[in-house]
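Need F-box associated beta-propeller type 1 domain-containing protein's 3D structure for a figure. Predict it.
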Amino acid sequence: MGCCRGFVLLNRQENFLVVWNPLTGSSKRISYSHIVSRNNNHGCIFPRDEILHGFGYDDSQGDYLVVLASQESNPQGRQQHLDCFSLRTNSWISLDPALPKPLDQRNWQSRGLFFNGAIHWLSNCLQSYIDSILIFDLKERSFSKISIPRQTVMRCYAHLLVLGECLALYFHDNPKSYIWVMKEYKVQSSWTLMYEIPYCNSEALCLSNGFGSDIILLENGDNVVEQMRFAKYNASGELLQHSSHRSLYYPYGHCFRGKSFIVYTESLLPFPSYLKDKDKKKKTGM
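Structure prediction for F-box associated beta-propeller type 1 domain-containing protein:
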């Protein structure tokens, strides 16, 4: 469901999220049963009642945050909520006043991308380049919006990613795929077309070696077969390397049915110490 500084956010059990460090094996379970209970006992809120989710790091507090926007149905109508879990305090807090209203569940891709101290969500329907990326600043606890390149309007499929420490937009326009990079954060005029790939049924993953280098993609098979194909292209769109791996699930559209993937950077960072533990140490002098 997201990654940040070597930690991966998973939805593995009903009413629980898990933050996991794949390198060290350390993990933490996070219960969201109170949100399920509030939302009329629907059961697991993913994906039915969930509008947005994201995982990121607040550098000002040294804290990892899970952000969740959900929708509650009641006789008075639908009420939207914004909840935030702090790993540092080991608790949920309500940020309802910060949530822009109304926030249509169909308007945004639910999984957010952490970048530059904020979580970003892309519009589901790119009918306008204006304000097509929703941003939640983890330090200020506030929302804002930025625009996408005019040339990407009306594309049926697109997603955000981070390439070379820049925010990037990846979209298909059969038979090709295109990657635009925002070289200067939140500056509309800095959007630059960096890659033009002669293949559309794929997902951009990462750069091979920093900004402007070759790009690695995950290509979905043309047929329903158990294959995951990885490919490396240069900036001119030339295929440099290709490899296939067997998969235990079938391709479906631009994703794999029932599965999702994310690119993360390995880290030995520990979970932040709970504030209660720090207070205890102060009192005992240890």
